[in-house]
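Re: Re: ligand-bound prediction request (bumping)

Still looking for help on this. To restate: I need the protein modeled with S-adenosylmethionine bound, output as structure tokens. Inputs repeated here so nobody has to scroll up.
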Amino acid sequence: MSFYLQYAEGLGGKILEPMCGSGRLFVPMMEHGLDIEGFDASEFMLESLYRKCNEKKLEPKVWQNFTHKLEKKNTYNLVIIPVGSLSLITDSNQLKISLEQIRESLVDGGVFVFELLTMIILEGRKTNRWGESSRTTPDGSKIILSCMDLPVENNIGESICRYEMVVDNQIQHTEIETYELRYFEKNEIDFLLNEIGFSKINHVTNCKHANSNECMVYECHK
Ligand SMILES: C[S@@+](CC[C@H](N)C(=O)[O-])C[C@H]1O[C@@H](n2cnc3c(N)ncnc32)[C@H](O)[C@@H]1O
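Reply:
Sorry for the wait, this slipped through. Here it is.
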């Protein structure tokens, strides 16, 4: 969070986190007293964000939407999309419209900071095999998580995840999730960012939380 705090505190004003999910970053930023708004395509992720905020007596300004349908004009000083969420937009046209909408939503001089997954992250990755791990939920149930990455085609990789909730040594509930991620070559998106009208497109290389080989961190100005 300290990386994004630097920008928030340096710029002041309103912040937007598209694809805010369950609020892993959003909620601590709110607790820090920042004027942050967010949205996400998934009502389930937003429900989880509301639950966290209720417990902390916070009133979040979040709504359900897709990034390419943002339609806000000149509102935010800072827009952030951390941990490669933007890589979930695998359709090139939707990605372009999303970036255009984000630029439109910034005040003049506003900044967009985001991370993208690179192809390097795929080196040595095994495909078509289940990898397994487990988690314990706050109420003590065990969840066995099995994930399989399918081979990457045209820089897009699909993953399948199976979640099994175990109570009293019985599987009580199973959920399957599939998602695609787009992996980027170095500098691949720079041309698009320029074309959309961002200026001062910087690759942030001294960002401690991201391995710069696996994740490219961008800072773009309107
Ligand atoms: C990996 S989660 C990350 C959430 C948050 N940034 C975090 O660090 O916890 C990615 C989120 O992006 C959302 N998402 C995926 N595609 C989207 C789209 N096109 N528009 C808006 N949200 C989207 C998903 O619902 C999910 O909650």
